[in-house]
Design goal:
This protein has 20 helices and 19 strands. It is an alpha+beta fold and 538 residues long. The termini are far apart.
């Protein structure tokens, strides 16, 4: 095959999506830490599914058109760092193939090289031995092959791309010692390999079919509509009879914001109906042409629609603070400290970029501050800046729940933006974060022997101990956190998760008061899932 068009790309995307779905549980098992977290394979699978669903009904046979829509779907559906990096690879891919109806092996080589550049640029501190390395080395090898053989076929391109990606993946433990210690390959790199294997199989005429055990889940995902059906009745008091071209311009602009668009004039009114992920942008575009008479927004996932006419002209808040949290008690803690909105999620469920964008669309504020409260969520939050460039969005780099709470305490609702950003970041960085959760497998990390079902004490992403009891691990974790820190720190914050009660917290508080009398101790029931304790030292 010398050339491919958009129709061919859709077949490749379907094959790759099926291959990733068939292997995502295996990829999950490659995670270094044996914690029940968001899981790399699942995050990449959900991210890719978001892109795949966006191109399914496309009629265009332009390669560039399909790549652009696919990239947009990945961007919105990106979950976890691996999902975000995957979306950035195909963002660069789409940029390189923009406006190309057909592409050659040379175009593919340029697209993957561009994808590598965009992905590396999106990461503040790129780490080798990860998906980034696998993308870079495989793209470079395939590009070199095409440069030496300008007549190379698309089949030959993918043969080299996959072969080098597999070899690069095998080398990841040599670049990341923790991979070698635990005896696994990089999980994000493994996910990328499964994606391009799916491409290769489709190009060779054998597109990957979805394994039977994955069909039920995928059907559920495919049948579920996402976004919002937005309907607007507008009184055309800002339009004259000579403004027909403006209505057409509005129609063209709205076509970029969603699907199933209807724009028609009727009895002095402009009627607009559209399926969109960004109803706020639709409202902003339409409001220039008249006065809202009726606005109805219906969540296509099943929630009841609500009229928001009364919200359109409200004065925006100076600040809106969006915190990622899970658990009623924990949500209340964030709200009590000043968070205006909660995005449900955490270590066990990484929210997507789309989740943040949908929340931001509901917000009217001059400045929007996001507290991701997890290092595997920060990149998805950061991508909202690209999706919603008209909003003033700032992501505070909080890597844990205790950091997020501390950042909120430092926030001054009357303060200047830059002062708040500096104070919140500084407060978060000062916190020592701890957590207790159970292990999902037997392993050994940093000399700590861990059995499946044991409770691990984790301090700032380092496993410091593992015992059969949550309370015993919490005590050991407190000891590790308190060591040599009495001069700089003064308060322990203990947050109990599901299965932990007030008596458990009081027992741990008593232990700290007796052994470390210089520290104050505050206790809360966070009711968070999976994590028995969150512990902060500030």
């Amino acid at each position: 095959m010398k050339k491919m068009n958009g129709k061919d790309l859709k077949i490749l995307i379907e094959s790759a999506g099926n291959n990733l779905a068939n292997h995502h549980h295996h990829i999950d098992a490659l995670n270094v830490f044996p914690v029940p977290d968001g899981d790399t394979g699942t995050n990449m699978h959900l991210t890719f599914t978001s892109g795949r669903e966006q191109v399914k009904e496309m009629k265009s046979e332009s390669f560039g058109d399909v790549a652009k829509v696919f990239s947009r779907g990945l961007l919105m559906g990106a979950r976890g760092n691996s999902g975000v990096i995957l979306s950035q690879v195909f963002r660069g891919f789409a940029q390189s193939t923009d406006k190309k109806v057909e592409i050659t092996a040379k175009d593919l080589a340029a697209a993957f090289m561009r994808g590598t550049e965009v992905a590396y640029r999106a990461i503040m501190k790129p780490v080798e031995g990860t998906i980034l390395t696998v993308v870079r080395e495989s793209s470079a090898a395939a590009n070199e092959m095409v440069e030496k053989n300008p007549e190379a076929t698309i089949e030959e391109f993918f043969e080299v791309l996959v072969q080098e990606a597999e070899e690069s993946l095998k080398r990841t433990p040599d670049l990341l010692p923790v991979l070698k210690e635990v005896g696994v390959l990089d999980s994000g790199g493994s996910g990328f390999v499964e994606v391009i294997r799916g491409f290769k199989e489709a190009v060779n005429g054998h597109p990957v079919e979805l394994a039977e055990e994955n069909e039920e889940d995928t059907e559920t995902e495919e049948e579920k509509e996402v976004g919002y059906r937005t309907q607007i009745h507008l009184m055309e008091d800002r339009l004259s009879k000579e403004d027909n071209d403006k209505v057409e311009k509005l129609r063209m602009k709205l076509e970029l914001l969603g699907e199933n668009l209807i724009v028609r004039e009727e009895a002095g009114r402009l009627l607009v109906s559209i399926n969109t992920l960004m109803p706020g942008q639709v409202l902003n575009a339409v409001q220039r042409y008249g006065t809202f008479e009726k606005v109805q927004i219906e969540n296509l996932a099943g929630e009841l629609g609500e009229s928001i006419v009364e919200d359109v002209n409200l004065e925006p808040l100076e600040y809106a603070i969006i915190a990622v949290s899970s658990g009623e008690g924990l949500n209340s803690m964030f709200k009590d400290l000043g968070a205006t909105h909660i995005v449900t999620g955490g270590q066990t469920m990484n929210p997507s970029t789309e989740s943040f964008c949908q929340m931001i669309e509901k917000v009217k504020a001059n400045h929007i501050l996001i507290l991701p409260n997890n290092s595997n969520i920060s990149l998805a939050a950061e991508q909202t800046k690209d999706v919603l460039p008209e909003e003033d969005i700032h992501v505070i780099p909080t890597k844990s729940i205790p950091q997020g709470l501390s950042a909120l305490i430092a926030f001054d609702p009357e303060g200047e933006l830059e002062d708040n950003l500096d104070a919140m970041k500084e407060a978060a960085e000062h916190v020592v974060s701890g957590s207790v959760t159970y292990s999902i497998k037997d392993t050994s990390i940093d000399g700590v022997e861990i059995k499946a079902g044991d409770y691990m004490g984790i301090m700032d992403k380092k496993i410091v101990l593992s015992t059969p009891m949550a309370y015993k691990s919490a005590k050991g974790l407190v000891d590790a956190m308190a060591q040599d820190r009495q001069d700089e720190y003064s308060v322990f914050t203990l947050i109990g998760g599901e299965g932990v009660n007030d008596s458990d917290l009081e027992l741990l508080k008593h232990y700290i008061n007796k052994k470390y009398p210089d520290f104050e101790v505050e206790t809360y029931l966070g009711e968070q899932p999976v994590y028995s304790y969150f512990i902060g030292l500030d």
